[in-house]
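To illustrate the input format used throughout this study, we show a single complete record. The first block contains the structure-token representation of the backbone; no residue identities are included at this stage. The design step must infer an amino acid for every position from geometry alone.
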């Protein structure tokens, strides 16, 4: 049930986000075709439907246990109120602190199976927290002009391309020890696989730092998606073996 509840919660949060940001989305090429922007859905409708989905998703979490429901709701609250409303329009730290929304999703998944929150679950969530800045700064570097036009203080819009590329590399490098540390719970196979994947990620970060272009930023963004997906697949497989 956590998959259903978490999916509805995430969908709800993103729809609310689209409603809140409709005016800025109009001047960003990446978001200019969203249903809210083209007029298929009004701002009020988006916020209403999104809130309903988020509520239903959180309530479904109770089928597993109360902790799962709390973490699903926490993810929605952080994404909508902390990230979208409070931080995104005001500070380049928006995506850093907003990364806890992703952490809450990992904690919800862990809680659904164990009804607990411990060091292992914290590290899983902290992994996503550390992964988030480098991942989304790569995307923001690709669409830097969009964020400038919308007056969003995303890091690449604030400090420029070269400094952002260095920040992405540093952020990814700081994440790697957290990823590897999980081998204490998951064994040698995980250690080997996660180390190889992390070296590839750092290679993409190095390429971006050497050539801070939109093309390299997109390559970094795409591989960071692949990276996190494979890491969590390895975690699941390691737990099943």
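Output of the design step:
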């Amino acid at each position: 049930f956590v998959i259903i509840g978490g999916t509805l919660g995430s969908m709800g949060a993103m729809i609310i986000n689209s409603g809140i940001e409709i005016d800025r989305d109009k001047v960003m090429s990446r978001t200019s075709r969203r249903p809210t922007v083209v007029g298929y859905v009004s701002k009020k409708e988006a916020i209403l439907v999104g809130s309903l989905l988020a509520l239903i998703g959180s309530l479904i979490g109770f089928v597993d246990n109360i902790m799962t429901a709390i973490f699903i709701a926490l993810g929605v609250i952080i994404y909508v109120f902390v990230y979208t409303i409070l931080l995104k329009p005001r500070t380049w730290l928006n995506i850093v602190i907003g990364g806890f929304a992703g952490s809450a999703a990992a904690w919800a998944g862990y809680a659904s199976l164990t009804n607990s929150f411990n060091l292992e679950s914290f590290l899983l969530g902290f992994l996503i927290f550390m992964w988030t800045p480098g991942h989304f700064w790569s995307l923001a570097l690709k669409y830097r002009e969009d964020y400038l036009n919308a007056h969003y203080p995303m890091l690449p819009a604030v400090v420029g391309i070269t400094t952002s590329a260095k920040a992405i590399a540093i952020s990814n490098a700081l994440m790697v020890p957290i990823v590897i540390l999980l081998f204490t719970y998951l064994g040698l196979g995980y250690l080997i696989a996660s180390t190889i994947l992390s070296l590839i990620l750092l290679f993409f970060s190095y390429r971006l730092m050497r050539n801070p272009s939109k093309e390299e930023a997109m390559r970094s963004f795409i591989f960071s998606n692949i990276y996190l997906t494979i890491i969590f697949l390895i975690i699941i497989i390691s737990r099943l073996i």
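Structural context for interpreting the output: The longest helix spans residues 214-240. The mean pLDDT is 93.
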